[in-house]
């Protein structure tokens, strides 16, 4: 019984610190977010097992429903543009910028049907969080062993076409909130070339106005999510009049336009059909070494 007064005093002290210190408020909200993730994962895992009995991409709709409720705890409202572009019933590789731990909320806000993610293998061992990711069909990559990662990607490329899956990848490879995009890893583009599917960019506006780890800022906000159009063009003889052929290791032109969209996403700009064709071409003479990029803006 003597423990309760201590707990009550600690809670009151925490509430006082949150009111007086922005840093304390920041850490308290981050701690609540982590607690919500673990609690949601445990409950959602049980629901997924009862509903579908095991690992399947169909569980992502259940997970999405739980995660979308997080925004109400933090006063976040997502402004989504051209979401219908993600709802087409065809496989594709979705690439998105990766800013913070809050990205999961943005992802689940617009997650299309039959969409899985690629995540680092370490997340599989995060207790209920790893379990719910596994049940949702997430593909885990061991980034320390490139041969294993390539095997997983090869298997995923085959399954994308066979099972009509969309794959969501963060090509930067890590969280980044420095106001720009990091150089892209090659995995997402190799996957698109191998499966011969289009790449669809999804760009989230900067979170820095309401979530900033350096300034210890965590308030309410309205991030914008933009879905530019991207049509499948898988051969060199495309309707695109001036294709640009570049090595698959150099994604600077495509990345540059994604940076432009990211910087403009707070200004009320809408891409419409401006972002045009992204084409992947398999050369008949050997392994895939090139991609063909159509004009991005008409």
From TrEMBL:
<comment type="function">
    <text>Converts 1-acyl-sn-glycerol-3-phosphate (lysophosphatidic acid or LPA) into 1,2-diacyl-sn-glycerol-3-phosphate (phosphatidic acid or PA) by incorporating an acyl moiety at the sn-2 position of the glycerol backbone.</text>
</comment>
<feature type="domain" description="Phospholipid/glycerol acyltransferase">
    <location>
        <begin position="92"/>
        <end position="207"/>
    </location>
</feature>
<feature type="transmembrane region" description="Helical">
    <location>
        <begin position="123"/>
        <end position="141"/>
    </location>
</feature>
<feature type="signal peptide">
    <location>
        <begin position="1"/>
        <end position="23"/>
    </location>
</feature>
<feature type="transmembrane region" description="Helical">
    <location>
        <begin position="33"/>
        <end position="50"/>
    </location>
</feature>
<keyword id="KW-0808">Transferase</keyword>
<dbReference type="GO" id="GO:0006654">
    <property type="term" value="P:phosphatidic acid biosynthetic process"/>
</dbReference>
<dbReference type="GO" id="GO:0001819">
    <property type="term" value="P:positive regulation of cytokine production"/>
</dbReference>
<keyword id="KW-0443">Lipid metabolism</keyword>
<keyword id="KW-0444">Lipid biosynthesis</keyword>
<dbReference type="GO" id="GO:0003841">
    <property type="term" value="F:1-acylglycerol-3-phosphate O-acyltransferase activity"/>
</dbReference>
<dbReference type="GO" id="GO:0005783">
    <property type="term" value="C:endoplasmic reticulum"/>
</dbReference>
<feature type="transmembrane region" description="Helical">
    <location>
        <begin position="188"/>
        <end position="207"/>
    </location>
</feature>
<keyword id="KW-0812">Transmembrane</keyword>
<keyword id="KW-0012">Acyltransferase</keyword>
<keyword id="KW-0472">Membrane</keyword>
<comment type="similarity">
    <text>Belongs to the 1-acyl-sn-glycerol-3-phosphate acyltransferase family.</text>
</comment>
<dbReference type="Pfam" id="PF01553">
    <property type="entry name" value="Acyltransferase"/>
</dbReference>
<protein>
    <recommendedName>
        <fullName>1-acyl-sn-glycerol-3-phosphate acyltransferase</fullName>
        <ecNumber>2.3.1.51</ecNumber>
    </recommendedName>
</protein>
<dbReference type="InterPro" id="IPR002123">
    <property type="entry name" value="Plipid/glycerol_acylTrfase"/>
</dbReference>
<keyword id="KW-0594">Phospholipid biosynthesis</keyword>
<keyword id="KW-1208">Phospholipid metabolism</keyword>
<dbReference type="GO" id="GO:0005789">
    <property type="term" value="C:endoplasmic reticulum membrane"/>
</dbReference>
<dbReference type="InterPro" id="IPR004552">
    <property type="entry name" value="AGP_acyltrans"/>
</dbReference>
<dbReference type="GO" id="GO:0019432">
    <property type="term" value="P:triglyceride biosynthetic process"/>
</dbReference>
<keyword id="KW-1133">Transmembrane helix</keyword>
<keyword id="KW-0732">Signal</keyword>
<comment type="pathway">
    <text>Phospholipid metabolism; CDP-diacylglycerol biosynthesis; CDP-diacylglycerol from sn-glycerol 3-phosphate: step 2/3.</text>
</comment>
């Amino acid at each position: 019984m003597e423990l309760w007064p201590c707990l009550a005093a600690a809670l009151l002290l925490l509430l006082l610190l949150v009111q007086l210190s922005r840093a304390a408020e920041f850490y308290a909200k981050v701690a609540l977010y982590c607690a919500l993730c673990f609690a949601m994962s445990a409950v959602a895992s049980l629901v997924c097992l009862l509903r579908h009995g095991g690992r399947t991409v169909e569980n992502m709709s259940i997970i999405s429903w739980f995660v979308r409720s997080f925004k109400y705890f933090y006063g976040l409202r997502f402004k989504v543009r051209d979401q219908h572009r993600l709802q087409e019933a065809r496989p594709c590789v979705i690439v998105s910028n990766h800013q913070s731990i809050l990205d999961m909320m943005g992802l689940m806000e617009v997650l299309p049907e039959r969409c899985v993610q690629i995540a680092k293998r370490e997340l599989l061992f995060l207790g209920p969080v790893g379990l719910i990711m596994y049940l949702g069909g997430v593909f885990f990559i061991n980034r320390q062993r490139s041969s294993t990662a390539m095997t997983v990607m090869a298997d995923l490329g085959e399954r994308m076409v066979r099972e009509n899956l969309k794959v969501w990848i963060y090509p930067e490879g890590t969280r980044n909130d420095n106001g720009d995009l990091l150089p892209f890893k090659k995995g997402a583009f190799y996957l698109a070339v191998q499966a011969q599917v289009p790449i669809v960019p999804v760009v989230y506006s900067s979170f820095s106005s309401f979530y900033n780890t350096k300034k210890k800022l965590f308030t309410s906000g309205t991030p914008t999510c933009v879905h530019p159009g991207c049509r499948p063009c898988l051969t060199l003889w495309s309707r695109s009049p001036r294709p640009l052929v570049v090595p698959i290791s150099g994604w600077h032109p495509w990345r540059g336009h994604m940076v432009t969209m990211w910087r403009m996403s707070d200004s009320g700009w809408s891409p419409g059909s401006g972002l045009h064709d992204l084409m992947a071409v398999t050369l008949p003479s050997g392994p895939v070494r090139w991609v063909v990029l159509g004009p991005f803006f008409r």
